[in-house]
Q: What sequence folds into this?
């Protein structure tokens, strides 16, 4: 077993934690708004959102970068985690909705008199937090069990995951499904009785950052273990792995389920920060974007996809303001450029430059 | 019933009980077999009977029957398309035969098991094209193959014991890759990759090794060393070697071991290399007369 991180790595983790848990909250909440050091609320919420995306990118790296299984349906797990959180948040609105009813507005609008069966536990924070983990986890496990046992691989697997998220999106679009149809959930007011104000948003930002750091360390531990090397072996020579006595199905299923759960947690952190969840998160494009973040940052590096999520989404928030029509063209061009010229992504480029720099010194 | 008859009956019963007790504890004949244990007491390592495989009507294996003894080193030769690789696929669970039986030892039906299980009970396979985990180091390649719990959780928290470390060092010396241990396997030469894969096989400590053209692409010196290595394994493991290189086969058989010739999916001839080479049918198949 390798050590998860070297001294430089631990320093990086420490800096990240201080930045997330101390610097950002202080600059946003304590520094007065007219100071040059004040961090605008907008940037906190943007960064909080991207932290959740980065968790997805990290999850994608475990399954795609290390195990060689490209999922084009990870947005589904993200959305399911988000919906599980959203249900709880809808119940927390209480009678403060438009119709002053105990029921969420969309149910009143549909003239429903009582909660559907799948809302039975929605009033309990603990139960819904369990569902955040269990719903994506169980779905991924069952789906993966059938797919991996049938030895569905490569592009076929990717297409099926894409179809899965698309089917789920259509299902969630229907009002009868009981998740607010195409409007989804919004207008959240409280978590655990505490209003969702700027302080709560900063808290959620810090929580997202710490979860990301935690998941990152966990992923480092996994890929540094013998199990991590089995995953890489499955990626490169699956038949050899089988004839060495390992059952690839078990390994794939374990990492696939873990990856889905990570996305579910990311979704649950995302929803209260952005204040909305709708079936758009399940669109095929949303899932493809996760793969793009991982590819741009550098697959099989763990840190790369996190960098990629920040780079692409940072660029997106700037581009969609400056040149709104050209964002998708830019994204496509970026993906093509990375595929052609930077097979190891931004992190690969950085490492290459560092190596060249060192050789230059010597 | 007379008393002396009863006495002799009791004596016979006591003798029987002690004999059974001795057998069940001593691990000999008459001992209950543990789950998944392979029984080799009848001297047979691998037994194929009337195995037939057809792909779209083409019979890759045609009622192939073959027996490999415990500790035997058997070379299998035959022209291209004779069914040598298909035979290995069937033994290791990659291909399911249409009919026939394949058993390992005298009690394990290989047709009921999946690839990882077959590897787990002690059948190691080397592919025709050397297959190693290229991005991993030589050391890590061997470590992954080392006999250990193959479960996910066990691998996640796995740590090499001192004993296992020694075993890996020993293997590195055996396959002449001691200095390459920290190198990435993808950077090895073709011959070295072949050696590494053989080392990975040995790390699994299999009872039966299936070697598909193990010296393809090796230099003469490497080929010679490989032959030496296989000869040291004979007796401890059963080996099935599929090879085209006749001088290598000659070195392995040492003029006294059996060679099997496959042709069109069944055994054409079996015997000493010299006998087989003199066999008219074999000459005909090879030279196409």
A:
């Amino acid at each position: 077993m390798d050590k998860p991180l070297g001294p430089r790595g631990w320093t990086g983790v420490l800096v990240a934690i201080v930045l997330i848990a101390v610097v950002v909250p202080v600059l946003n909440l304590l520094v007065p708004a007219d100071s040059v050091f004040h961090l605008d609320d907008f940037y906190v919420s943007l960064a909080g959102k991207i932290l959740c995306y980065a968790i997805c990118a990290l999850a994608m790296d475990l399954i795609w970068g290390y195990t060689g299984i490209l999922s084009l349906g990870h947005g589904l797990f993200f959305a399911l985690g988000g919906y599980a959180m959203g249900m709880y948040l809808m119940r927390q609105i209480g009678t403060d909705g438009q119709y002053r009813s105990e029921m969420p507005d969309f149910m009143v609008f549909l003239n429903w008199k009582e909660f559907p069966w799948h809302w039975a536990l929605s009033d309990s924070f603990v139960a819904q937090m369990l569902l955040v983990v269990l719903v994506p986890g169980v779905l991924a496990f069952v789906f993966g069990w059938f797919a991996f046992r049938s030895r569905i691989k490569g592009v076929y697997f990717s297409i099926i995951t894409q179809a899965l998220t698309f089917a789920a999106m259509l299902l969630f679009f229907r009002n009868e499904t009981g998740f607010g149809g195409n409007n989804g959930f919004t207008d959240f007011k409280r978590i655990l009785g505490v209003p969702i104000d700027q302080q709560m948003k900063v808290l959620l930002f810090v929580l997202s950052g710490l979860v990301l750091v935690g998941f990152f360390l966990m992923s480092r531990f996994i890929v540094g273990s013998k199990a991590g090397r089995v995953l890489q072996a499955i990626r490169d020579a699956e038949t050899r792995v089988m004839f060495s006595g390992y059952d690839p199905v078990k390994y794939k299923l374990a990492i696939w389920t873990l990856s889905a759960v990570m996305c579910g947690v990311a979704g649950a952190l995302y929803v209260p920060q952005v204040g909305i969840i709708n079936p758009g998160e399940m669109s095929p494009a949303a899932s493809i974007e996760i793969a793009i973040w991982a590819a741009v940052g550098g697959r099989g590096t763990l840190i790369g996809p996190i960098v990629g999520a920040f780079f692409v989404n940072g660029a997106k928030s700037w581009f969609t303001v400056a040149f709104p029509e050209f964002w998708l063209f830019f994204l496509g061009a970026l993906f093509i450029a990375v595929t052609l010229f930077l097979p190891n992504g931004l992190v690969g480029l950085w490492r290459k430059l560092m190596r060249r720099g060192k050789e230059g010194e010597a | 019933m007379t008393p002396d008859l009863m006495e002799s009956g009791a004596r016979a019963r006591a003798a029987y009980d002690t004999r059974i007790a001795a057998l069940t504890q001593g691990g000999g004949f008459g001992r209950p077999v543990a789950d998944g244990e392979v029984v080799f007491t009848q001297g047979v390592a691998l037994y194929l009977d009337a195995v037939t495989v057809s792909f779209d009507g083409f019979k890759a294996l045609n009622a192939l029957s073959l027996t490999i003894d415990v500790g035997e080193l058997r070379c299998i030769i035959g022209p291209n398309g004779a069914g040598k690789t298909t035979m290995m696929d069937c033994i290791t669970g990659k291909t399911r035969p249409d009919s026939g039986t394949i058993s390992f030892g005298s009690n394990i039906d290989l047709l009921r098991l999946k690839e990882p299980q077959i590897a787990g009970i002690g059948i190691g396979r080397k592919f025709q094209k050397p297959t190693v985990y290229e991005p991993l180091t030589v050391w890590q390649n061997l470590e992954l193959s080392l006999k250990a719990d193959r479960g996910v959780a066990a691998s996640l928290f796995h740590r090499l014991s001192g004993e296992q470390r020694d075993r890996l060092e020993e293997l590195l010396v055996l396959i002449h890759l001691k200095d390459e241990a920290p190198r990435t396997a993808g950077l090895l030469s073709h011959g070295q990759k072949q050696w590494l894969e053989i080392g990975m096989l040995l790390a699994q400590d299999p009872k039966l090794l299936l070697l598909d053209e193990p010296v393809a692409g090796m230099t003469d010196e490497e080929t010679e060393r490989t032959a030496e290595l296989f000869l040291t394994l004979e007796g401890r493991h059963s080996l099935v070697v599929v090879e085209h290189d006749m001088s290598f086969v000659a070195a392995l058989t040492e003029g006294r071991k059996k060679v099997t010739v496959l042709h069109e999916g069944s055994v054409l001839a079996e015997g000493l290399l010299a006998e087989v080479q003199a066999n008219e049918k074999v000459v005909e198949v090879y030279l196409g007369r």
